[in-house]
Amino acid sequence: MTAGTSVTTAGPAPEGSDPDGVDPSGPPPAETGPVPAATVPGGTGRAHRRRRGGRTRVVAVATTAVVAVAAAVTAAVGFGGDDPGTATAGTLPPANAQITRQTLIDSEPATGELGYGETRTAAVRSGGTVTWMAGTGSRVTRGRPLFSVDNAKVVLLYGTLPAYRTLRSGDSGADVKQFERNLSALGYDGFTVDDEYTSATADAVEQWQDDLGLDETGRVELGQVVYAASEVRVDSHEATVGDAAQPGSGVLTYTGTARVVTATLDVEDQRLAKKGGKVTVTLPDGKDVAGTIATVETVIETGSGADEEPETKIEVTVTAADPKALAGFDSASVDVAFTADQRTDVLTVPVAALLALAEGGYGVQLVEGGTTRIVAVQTGLFASGRVEISGAGLAEGATVGMPR
């Protein structure tokens, strides 16, 4: 930085003062609250406040650029300085702080729900009477029945494409290939796994139907199978054995079998929700479990009252690095610490120590004995009321000026 760099002031300098400095007799420094400690190993640096309706609201810990500028200008008005590199005596700042070296973490807490993830409904595709259902809490694997209608089993298969038509000889498509993969995985053969439903496929289907006690038609009727990504857990019953089920009516709900944590974030905190990102889950017993963000989705939450507008939220699903650590809890409220960014072994100062320089950028006022000088700095991560700084003349333990 060249000579002539100065601190932005609130007005013209009084007679006898440095024309590029700040009037030491100017307006009193703005009151600032206590600066929260930066998040460092061994400390949390977290804060909570509640949403309407008692739900935990994520608290913004990272300082935005606007807040940084406001803090810097407040600092500039609160204490004076001179050209960079020029030491002056007799104009010491009203308060000071030390430059520290630490790990700075942009981290925010949220409340999550430990459970089995998204719940889906298995429905009847044609009318009939519900004659059997898998028990709640039970696990159903490929080829096993979820429920029965008119004593005909509705079987779970694995796949992502929902069943949407009856399959028969002459049909082709991705749904045919998905079904044939399952048929092969169940041990049936004599056909080629491809997207063609041939007479050989129909022969294998007849054998499969015979093993299930179904009519041997060689066709896969719509509603005879339900597809899920993998093994499922029956969550609840929506019908009772003996109920007359109409087409489309739900029989039972199911989830995945892996315990996961689901948390909801405000849209402004979307930076925290990156697939593959690392989080820390604190269980009800106080144990911390490492987790990874598995899915990120945008959802619409309806208002709790008639006059409340729907809100857009970010729903995050977290899987545990050690699933066994969650085994003691079927469902529970947990704390989730999201980390958006982290800087290791960096120099930091309180955000209020920043000075807005007239030509742009920021500086700090170094205090050396009875003298001070302004040093330009490059800012990095803002978090927990502190900011990462770098630049010539900066060292751990050095003293910087602060507003009162």
TrEMBL record:
GO terms for cellular component: cell envelope. It comes from the Bacteria. Residues 172-220 form the Peptidoglycan binding-like domain. Residues 1-56 are annotated as: Disordered. It is found in: Cell envelope. The chain crosses the membrane at residues 58-79. Keywords: Coiled coil, Membrane, Transmembrane, Transmembrane helix. Pfam families: PG_binding_1. InterPro entries: Peptidoglycan-bd-like (IPR002477), PGBD-like_sf (IPR036365), PGBDSf (IPR036366), UPF0194_transport (IPR050465). Residues 46-55 have a biased composition (Basic residues). The keyword Transmembrane helix applies. Gene3D superfamilies: 2.40.420.20, PGBD-like superfamily/PGBD. This is Peptidoglycan binding-like domain-containing protein. The lineage of its organism: Bacteria, Bacillati, Actinomycetota, Actinomycetes, Micromonosporales.
